[in-house]
C-alpha cells in the first residue's frame, strides 16, 4: 500500500513532463534542420546552377 501511494505521488509531481518532452523534441528537430538538412539543400542548389 505504501508503494502505491509513493508511485501515485511521483506520477502527480511529474505531470508537466509531457509538455517539456515535446518542446525538447521540437528543439532537436530544429537543430537537426539547421545543421544537416539546410546546408545540404544549399549544396544541391549550387550543383543545380552548373
Explain the overall architecture:
With about 50 residues, the chain is mostly helical. It has a domain at about 15-50. About 90% of the residues lie in helices and about 0% in strands. It is built from 2 helices and no strands. It has helices at about 1-15, 15-50. It starts with a helix and ends with a helix. The model has no long low-confidence stretch (mean pLDDT about 80). InterPro entries: Preprotein_translocase_YajC. It holds the Pfam family YajC. This is Preprotein translocase subunit YajC. Keywords: Membrane, Transmembrane, Transmembrane helix.
Q: What's the short story on this structure?
A:
The protein is mainly α and 50 residues long.
List keywords for this structure.
50 residues; mainly alpha; rod-shaped; transmembrane helix; transmembrane; Preprotein translocase subunit YajC; Preprotein_translocase_YajC
The major sheet is characterized as:
none
Percent of residues in helices comes to over 70%
Report Rg.
22 Å
Low-confidence stretches: none
Instruction: Give the number of DSSP strands.
Output: 0
Q: How much strand content do the residues show?
A: under 5%
Termini Cα gap: 72 Å
Shape: rod-shaped
Return the string of H and E elements.
Answer: HH
Q: Could you say which structural class the secondary elements and strand pairing correspond to?
A: mainly alpha
Mean pLDDT: 81
> Helical stretch count?
2
Describe the SSE topology:
Blueprint: H1 2-13, H2 17-49
Amino acid at each position: 500500500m505504501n508503494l502505491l501511494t509513493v508511485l501515485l505521488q511521483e506520477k502527480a509531481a511529474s505531470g508537466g513532463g509531457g509538455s517539456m518532452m515535446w518542446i525538447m523534441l521540437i528543439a532537436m528537430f530544429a537543430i537537426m534542420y539547421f545543421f544537416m538538412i539546410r546546408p545540404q539543400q544549399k549544396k544541391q542548389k549550387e550543383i543545380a546552377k552548373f
